UniProtKB/TrEMBL annotation:
Its main location: membrane. It comes from Candidatus Planktophila vernalis. Pfam families: EamA (PF00892). Residues 14-147, 159-292 form the EamA domain. Belongs to the EamA transporter family. The chain crosses the membrane at residues 12-32, 38-61, 73-95, 101-121, 133-152, 158-178, 190-210, 222-240, 247-270, 276-294. It is found in: Membrane. This is EamA-like transporter family protein. The keyword Cell division does not apply. It is a multi-pass membrane protein. GO terms for cellular component: membrane. SUPFAM superfamilies: Multidrug resistance efflux transporter EmrE. Keywords: Membrane, Transmembrane, Transmembrane helix.
Length: 302
């Protein structure tokens, strides 16, 4: 009886944070769309990482946590920043100048499959399992369904689709890369996140100074959206994510990618009046099913 209540207490400690993370990351696509009202795609990418970096550095200071000292580790963290913040931050914003925030949110759900692919191709510690191959193939069918491939990609400009898929490929590579080169240093999550996001902000700064502002018109809605995207989406979200990993394990933490597309679709319809075509949610379900099989959440093979 005692252990049952302890487990419940443990789950209640991360459930709230998990829901918050799903909502914040799910809303990030609508925040990007709003931010594009006054910022260029580079401006959106820089805005979110610079605010995220300030948040995380202040938080680390407040907690008395020191940033990493090792130069080689900083190099690895910079690579992670490129893969997690700089390149996808720009590509998602660029794509959303041409497609709905809903489509961006759904394509983002391909991340677990790209992680699987990266592990199978570049970080081959083990041979791919049957369930991983099935999951990937199913996920690929899901992506083609989301895009309505039978219409020749229909209304979605090919460059935007390529940008979104390349962005999630960067996400996919970042996880095994971090596991191999960053996590063995056994640093506190806050230190890793603060250093990584700061490296991303410094990388984007010169580009922002050249071409960051789209127009000098700062309406409260878009400005608040950018603040939320930076402080929560690129700041506290990392701390929450690590906290869920500590309390519930990385397998549970990674399932937040199943929540984000659902949130993205709902907020896109309600707040931006975006339309959704039948094949987008159907394809999203196939993508999520593929990811679930690939991560062995749904067991097809013994």
């Amino acid at each position: 009886m005692h252990s049952h209540s302890a487990t419940q207490k443990n789950s209640s400690s991360w459930i709230g944070v998990y829901i918050a993370l799903g909502i914040v990351w799910g809303c990030s696509f609508i925040f990007i769309k709003l931010g594009l009202e006054f910022l260029t795609p580079i401006g959106v990418a820089f805005g979110r990482v610079s605010l995220g970096a300030l948040t995380l550095v202040f938080w680390a200071r407040y907690k008395g946590i020191e940033l990493p000292k090792d130069k080689k580790l900083w190099l690895h963290l910079w690579v992670v920043a490129l893969l997690l913040n700089v390149i996808p931050g720009f590509l998602f914003a660029f794509a959303e100048t041409k497609v709905t925030s809903i489509l961006a949110g759904i394509i983002n759900a391909v991340t677990p499959l790209m992680t699987l692919l990266a592990i199978m191709i570049a970080f081959r510690e083990e041979k791919p399992k049957n369930y991983q191959v099935v999951g990937l193939l199913l996920g690929f069918v899901g992506v083609l369904t989301v895009l309505g491939a039978w219409n020749g990609l229909g209304a979605n400009p090919i460059i935007a689709v390529v940008a979104l898929l390349f962005a999630v490929t960067c996400y996919g590579v970042s996880f095994p890369y971090s596991r191999k080169y960053v996590l063995p240093h056994k640093l506190q999550p806050e230190a890793i996140a603060a250093a990584q996001v700061s490296a991303g902000a410094l990388t984007l700064l010169p580009f922002y100074l050249i071409d960051g502002i789209a127009k000098n018109e700062y309406r409260p809605g878009p400005v608040l959206a950018m603040i939320a995207l930076g402080v929560f989406g690129s700041g506290f979200a990392y701390i929450w994510n690590f906290r869920i990993m500590e309390a519930a394990g990385s397998a549970i933490a990674s399932t937040v990618t199943y929540v984000t597309p659902v949130v993205a679709v709902i907020v896109g319809i309600i707040f931006l009046g975006e339309s959704i075509v039948w094949n987008e949610p159907v394809g999203a379900l196939i993508v999520l099913l593929g990811a679930a099989i690939g991560q062995q959440r749904i067991k097809l093979f013994r």
